[in-house]
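Entry 14. Structure prediction run on the chain below.
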Amino acid sequence: MKRRSIVAMLVVCCVSFGLAQDEVIPPKRARAAKVGLFVGFTPGVIFPKLGSINSFLKAGHAAPLSENGMFLYGGGGAIYIMVLPNVRIGGVGMSGSLSSTALDANNIRRDTQLKLGYGGVTIEYVVPVFERMVVAVGGMLGGGGIDITLRQSNGLSNTWQGEQDYLGGGLGAPQANVTRVLTGSFFVFVPSLNVEYTVLPWMAVRTGVSYAVMASPTWKVDGNYDLLGVPSDVSGRGAQINLALLVGLF
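Output returned:
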């Protein structure tokens, strides 16, 4: 009788263990303050407002730039400061470009390239959601700007005499190639909202949204001369989609 009781108890224990193994265990909620540090690759897509720039290009018989978004590439990192729970500081830098080309009936080619970039200090407050997932709310404060490079070529050969005539304002043959660079420098603020998921103890992925705000511009031509009369909406501001692959201690 005693042997049968022992066997019955063993059967009950095995069944209970099997049911426990089949039970779906929900993710644990994270309660402890976050610690760690990381660096990573931070690509993204920004949608700058190009209305005034494209109107300018069309009036000069150049091709407008695409308004379907600009890919940005960069890197960044952060560390939890520990003094304030779940607060981390770091830095990030990103840049990208767009280009267009037009060729008219007189065989004059016009090329445009717009480069956009920014970088600065980041500060974020991290809200743990589950054991491996957090939501980060914060922003970046720094500087950046845009370069608008305008090139025109008439298909002729460049000559020493032609360069001299151009420099002296003479009436010689027209320049074969002309390049102008319009540079705008800005104060940049980028508020952001991101979700991060820890794939491995040393690797995480991130996605989210942000908005680049650019203010207080200073414009130059060819890096030396002031450029006046630039419309206030010519900047790199716009909505942005954020991505990142991060490595470190999470």
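Confidence is low (pLDDT under 50) at residues 1-26.
Filed with the rest of this week's runs.
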